[in-house]
Amino acid sequence: MINQADPRQTELPGEVQPSSAPLAATSSTLSPLWWGGAAVLAGGAAAALGLLTYALQVEPLDIRLERLTVRLPGAAGRLPQGGLRILQLSDSHFHGGKYNRRELAKIERVRALTAGLDYDLLFHTGDFIHFDSGLENVLRLLNAVPRPRLGSFGVFGNHDYTHYAMQEALPRMWRTFQAAERMRDPQRGPLARIAAAATRGPRYLRYVRNTPLDGRRTGGNNTDRLTTALAQWGMTLLHNQGFHLVRPELGLDVYLAGVDDVIEGRPRLGDSVCDIPDHAPLILLSHNPDIIASPQLPRVDLVLSGHTHGGQIRVPFWGPAHTQVEFVPRQHVSGFFRHGRTQVYITRGMGEGIPLRFRARPQITLIEVTT
After folding, report:
1. CB 71 within 8 A of CB 301
2. Backbone region of residue 251 per phi and psi (left: phi > 0; alpha: psi in -120 to 50; beta: other values)
3. Integer Rg of the chain from CA
4. Labelling 6: which of 25, 194, 302, 369 has CA 20 to 30 A away?
């Protein structure tokens, strides 16, 4: 009996048999490309996730105590011998509620940074709260820092008055931009209109970059409740008013002033300084540094502000994602600079409008004022 070989296993001498070898070769060739592409995508996704985690969970909690020395030559003979030491807090933006755990971590960070700190004045330059539910954490924050020797002062920021739907800001700004473009079109010739239409996108981006975000107001906070709580704690709110800080036994004789919020309040710098003698040393608290546009500014020696969060997110080649100011140059969105004869300091603050920071680390500042 003849045994029949399995045809699938029959090999003919000198003949190339059909097989899966070409398919195997193709698979072998593509696999490194496929795996390489997958590795790049996975690496990119991991990097993006890492950056997001850092911006969401690491940098916003990494509050730093920074130090600044400011000289006021006009205060010669009117400051204590060792100078005047000011602790500036700003933009705590407390929500309470689901953010409570995060905010308590920030408060404990500030407590550790300021433990045993010896200083004269405590200033809070606004945006104490984001919502009314954050008031309890404001008081926790104030109780976490050592009491100043000479007093505590503050001003309100826009979020102390109002909360916003910021997710609607860009569409609202696009409508505003488009309306302004329609107003300009009748004054443009045919070629100018074509050029304007062709460059509308980049010009809109520039408009957004340099204009405060226009979020829809969704409700108000209880400023009376906040005012009462701060007064009971021992903080003096300076809303469009001045304060003569005089302690003869210490050799101290300077003036403080505060102005209401530029956006949501009724700022009247003239009222703040009207009773202050000309050439007297004057320190102004203003949540929004756009107060530098006031014609009364030359009366002021030093402005202490917040509001900008240092841009909050600083993008390579773009800089601050947004500054929220109109009159402050982008390069001065945080830190110290001069505007005419007036010195200005803008803190990055310790909180956020949205819970992200990148390359704009939160801060509190110890300011030493000397002559």
Report:
1. no
2. left
3. 30
4. 25
Q: Which DSSP helix (H) or strand (E) runs through 220?
A: strand 216-220
Across the strands, what pairs with 339? 342
Beta carbons of 232 and 244 less than 8 angstroms apart: no
Whole-Å CA distances, 306 to 18, 127, 201? 77, 9, 31
Question: What DSSP assignment string belongs to 3-48?
Answer: PPPPGGG---TT-PPP-SHHHHHHHHHHHHHHHHHHHHHHHHHHHH
With CA atoms as reference, report the closest residue to 218 among 155, 163, 285. 163
171-224 residue pLDDT tens: 999 999 999 999 998 999 999 999 999 999 999 988 888 888 888 999 999 999
In 3D space, the residue among 249, 247, 246, 245 whose CA is nearest the CA of residue 258 turns out to be 245
pLDDT in tens, 10-26: 444 444 444 444 444 45
CA neighbours closer than 13 Å in the CB half-sphere of residue 267: 27
CB count within 10 Å of CB 316 equals 6
- Provide the pLDDT for residue 367: 98
Q: Give alpha helix (H) positions in the chain.
A: 21-53, 100-114, 135-144, 158-161, 169-184, 190-198, 200-209, 223-233, 269-273
Query: Which amino acid, residue 299?
Result: R
> What does the block give as tokens for 324?
């929220």
- Give me the half-sphere count of Cα atoms (radius 13 Å) on the Cβ side of residue 98: 1
